[in-house]
Amino acid sequence: MRVLVLGGAGFIGLHLVRRLAADGHSVTVVDDFSRGRDDADLAVVCADPAVEVVTGDLTRAATWAALPRGWDQIYLLAAVVGVRNVEADPARVVRINTTVALHLMDWITPTDQVFFSSTSEVYAGAVDAGVAAVPTGEDVPAMVADVTAPRFAYATSKLLGEAAVLHGARAVGARAVVGRFHNVYGPRMGADHVVPEMSLRAIRGEDPFRVPGADQYRAFCHVDDAVEAMIRLMATGQAAGEIVHIGNDAEQTNIADLAKLVLRVAGAHASLRPEPAPAGSVHRRCPDLGKLRRLTGYQPRVALEDGVSQTFAWYRDHHAG
Length: 321
Ligand SMILES: NC(=O)c1ccc[n+]([C@@H]2O[C@H](COP(=O)([O-])OP(=O)(O)OC[C@H]3O[C@@H](n4cnc5c(N)ncnc54)[C@H](O)[C@@H]3O)[C@@H](O)[C@H]2O)c1
What we know:
Blueprint: E1 2-6, H1 11-22, E2 26-31, H2 40-46, E3 51-55, H3 61-66, E4 73-76, H4 83-88, H5 90-107, E5 113-119, H6 121-128, H7 152-172, E6 175-181, E7 184-185, H8 194-204, E8 209-212, E9 217-218, E10 221-222, H9 223-234, E11 243-246, E12 253-254, H10 255-266, E13 272-275, H11 290-296, H12 304-319
Parallel strand pairs: 1-2, 1-4, 2-3, 4-5, 5-6, 6-11, 7-10, 8-13
Antiparallel strand pairs: 9-12
Helix pairs in contact: 1-9, 5-7, 8-10, 8-12, 10-12
The structure holds nicotinamide-adenine-dinucleotide.
Nicotinamide-adenine-dinucleotide is lined by residues 7, 9-13, 31-36, 57-59, 77-81, 96, 100, 117, 119, 181, 183-184.
């Protein structure tokens, strides 16, 4: 297959590209390197002649106009993500995420098959308001508690993206599926996410060890499992037109236990210092994966301890010193 991965130099994107290339597909990455890195990991993936990288800003019509047509699969991952970005510049998050999705909407042709990356944040307001149960399925109302709060700029942009891509594809008879990621983690994901952030503090020997939101619960999904789910959804005709939750429901953990796991993996001995959770983050998050399982037979494979060990080792090797 010829596969186009938009935002493919980023965290999930590069893991997806590596897997697609290993499966024998030819892959073209488009990325503006605003967050994705032109680093050693990218160089290893690009050493495969089946992988091509194009530098381009997907908010610009000219980038889309220059893209070849006739892809077997198109994955849209390009977005501005992360609480820090959202708090610092919510207008940028809204502008980039929606503009990229709207360009894709206008660019889709009837023979295309598209994956759009969305997020559990689109329904987080419904969990907070008590109208959505946890584990959470796709049938709960998407809900933004406060449009004026910077934090919700990301959820708002992704909700618009879901509608744009699903309706845009349907309008021309193309196939599109929306995957809502739930706390995906793994090597090369930047330093802001809780697993790398804790890993780096453990490497520095922080003691007492700060644990913001110690009593919150999350279900972390290793990026290899997330990639497997994406690939299976794109291979499943019945997934077209659907919104599907992607994550790992096998092991929920509270953040204090995650901190203990990171410290154990690091071989560090520190006392935990619980701190308040970041403002606006949900108390508990876990996807109901019934729909993903019914459609694709997916089962999460990477145990939390294994995934955290592998992620910790990557950060130790790349960031220590
Ligand atoms: N990691 C998670 O747990 C998670 C959770 C929910 C949703 N998602 C979604 O999955 C997707 C991938 O997330 P990620 O964690 O890999 O993020 P990431 O920031 O690592 O990857 C996004 C990539 O998009 C690129 N990009 C941004 N703006 C661009 C533009 N205008 N033109 C071209 N490229 C651009 C960035 O340089 C980066 O390489 C995003 O759409 C995100 O919203 C991720």
